[in-house]
Design a protein that fits this description.
mainly alpha; Helix Hairpins; 2 domains; 7 helices; elongated
Length: 227
């Protein structure tokens, strides 16, 4: 599916004056704040294409400008309907900014709106190349829990678990690097307008997200046990 044009280029009908408008947030005829269209997405709210590389300074500047214009305090004397629209717009804008400024959240959101986010089986499986290391980590976790219950010495077990946790933290960092590279492949595929390249890039991103989720859960479990 080709990346859609920003909402600004899609004619809408204003709820207030009922005129067709090409505005993204405000009616080009009467100036009233527009309702959020059903086909809206976070990229379109900022009038940018569905690319994973975003210039953060420009995104923040756009967010601050729109936050000021859409803030409910500016509509205290407006009609109840316009106050409700501004409140919804402001909330949606905050959600969009929070998602797009986060590299991982941005990838997850893109795959979701592209219909490509697949989290696999209910129970996540360890990446095949990490089976042995995951098995050893789980053994260390079990031994530490048993030592706690029996009142045994946990110092050496904690040290071993700490080292294993650091190893998986390193792998998590490496995965973030791979995710960044795959994001670049998506952007190139989007520019080339090649459906097969886009599908391949989305599949790669989805696989990396699943791996990242699994390893991140391992790291969190280790950190909880070491508290």
């Amino acid at each position: 599916m080709a990346s859609p044009l920003p909402i600004a280029n899609a004619p809408l009908v204003c709820w207030n004056c009922h005129e067709r408008t090409v505005g993204t947030h405000f009616c080009s005829s009467c100036g009233k704040v527009l309702q959020v269209p059903n086909n809206s997405d976070y990229f379109a709210m900022f009038e940018i294409p569905r690319k994973l590389w975003i210039e953060m300074g420009a995104l923040e500047q756009k967010f601050l400008q729109l936050s000021w214009k859409l803030h409910p305090d500016n509509y205290v004397n407006a009609t109840p309907e316009e106050r409700e629209v501004s409140l919804k717009r402001s909330s949606e804008l905050n959600d969009a900014y929070r998602t797009l400024r986060d590299p991982v959240g941005r990838v997850e959101y893109l795959l979701a709106i592209e219909g490509a986010r697949k989290e696999g089986q209910t129970k996540q499986q360890a990446p095949p190349e990490l089976l042995e290391e995951v098995f050893e980590l789980n053994e260390s976790l079990d031994e530490l829990r048993e030592a706690r219950e029996s009142g045994g010495d946990t110092a050496s077990l904690k040290q071993r678990l700490h080292s294993a946790g650091k190893n998986f933290e390193t792998k998590l960092g490496e995965l973030d690097g791979e995710l960044q590279n795959a994001a670049g492949q998506w952007d190139k595929a989007l520019e080339s307008n090649d459906p097969s390249q886009r599908d391949s890039a989305k599949a790669k991103l989805n696989d990396l997200l699943n791996r990242r989720s699994y390893i991140r859960n391992l790291v969190i479990n280790v950190q909880k046990e070491l508290l």
